[in-house]
Amino acid sequence: MTSEPPPQTRFTAEVVLRWGDMDAYGHVNNVQFHRLLEEARIRAFSEWFHASGGDSMLRSGVLLARQEIEFLEQLTYRPEPVAIEMWVTHLGGASWDMGYEIRDGDALYARAESTLVAFDLAAQRPRSLSRDERSALEALLGEPVAMRRRR
Amino acid sequence: MTSEPPPQTRFTAEVVLRWGDMDAYGHVNNVQFHRLLEEARIRAFSEWFHASGGDSMLRSGVLLARQEIEFLEQLTYRPEPVAIEMWVTHLGGASWDMGYEIRDGDALYARAESTLVAFDLAAQRPRSLSRDERSALEALLGEPVAMRRRR
Amino acid sequence: MTSEPPPQTRFTAEVVLRWGDMDAYGHVNNVQFHRLLEEARIRAFSEWFHASGGDSMLRSGVLLARQEIEFLEQLTYRPEPVAIEMWVTHLGGASWDMGYEIRDGDALYARAESTLVAFDLAAQRPRSLSRDERSALEALLGEPVAMRRRR
Amino acid sequence: MTSEPPPQTRFTAEVVLRWGDMDAYGHVNNVQFHRLLEEARIRAFSEWFHASGGDSMLRSGVLLARQEIEFLEQLTYRPEPVAIEMWVTHLGGASWDMGYEIRDGDALYARAESTLVAFDLAAQRPRSLSRDERSALEALLGEPVAMRRRR
Asked: How confident is the prediction for chain B on average, in pLDDT?
């Protein structure tokens, strides 16, 4: 499955597969796709929120409120990383949505979308995004994820 | 978060947590929710497709085409299982959609929905559901999953 | 592979497998054997250290210092749990060794041994075992693990 | 904890951590150390057995018969890989032992040793190492792993 090149406002994380990501079907397990997305997100955060102190988002806390994924191509282990493109699809006061594409060149293995909530772990409640966090996310605002399998 | 009791047409799998499902935030990691759903599905399949030879669905092959989840409550490890309620939300010729709720009594931790495709692993292509498979799935047809966080 | 029945001083945890524990070879992955042992240990601790407040050991902290395993039989997923027998093979001031056998009836899938250190997570250093903890562990003192593959 | 530089006959795999490797204690979980060792091994095999067709060892089959690990330092997630040094500690007709050190510069997080068995997956029995496989392994023969915590 091929698709057009990603636009400029995306951030790409190279995420390395592990042989152990494969299941008894001999391909990367569906659950492990979410592990790859999590790792891409973590790597993106340390770049995006650099002005706010790098891993401040992770240290203060961020929760996943929603995730949706469409699996397009089977992926098998290889030593080379996959490219996970990320961009922002919606920006709220304490939360944002982000899109992902798991790619290798023209191949598109999966598209996904998450809702993330900035969360004060100590107080155990959502917190407002800071000005630095908002401007980092705004710079990556892009189109909605083109989900095709929702009924 | 509480919600009304599940209707009759649901199938419940008791899925056991592991301490290792928790992440550095001290709660069950978002990725592991998908592992719990996978395990519930596997256990459901061996019941649902009993007439077609028990694990025939798994042996011949079934792929996950889509998954959507809303995380409602944080879950922490305890020795007792969670109850994962499952039902069918759409039935096609070679695929079906199913809903899930991860519960413990009145608590609702997550709701989710999957699209599954009966897949011929040898031929590497979708295959039609058999009559026995269809009638097993039809018996569990129920309401759509009430997703509330889609934009 | 069969072997003699376990002696009286062992504690048994029933640990449930997951389909996702299998790897591309179609059997439970070697790494996941360690996950099963971890889960058995966690369940044992809440029993053993009941007098000291149940999960006190986990909350105050315990680190794994060493682990050794011999894989004897391939294990494939099934809905039934495996039995993990545990006993104590050495008792020190701040640490202890424990043996494990992963079994199903007469079948013995793996034998293993761990060294565990009671650890003060706040101070980040080992701490002495309490009197209650020692007496719980003493009650399970048994023979060394009969490792056969060390060179 | 520091230690002398590794000798020449070692093979180094750079293995990338994932945030999800951490557990509720906020450090890389003991089980995931085995996942890192597995990944290092897989990457080593494709180099070592290049003359025998690259991933021939994996495709024909190789089983882990034994593993021993000593945990020396707690490891926390960071985007940079760890270096896993590997060498051969014993060479048999159908099996070999290999040593590992998980390092980052002078820091030594863990040392480990595995026994691996060349295994014919189709026939489900051990097979002899080929001449190419033996000579690849011989080139990496080195000292035993200096385990210090065995009783």
From this structure: 91
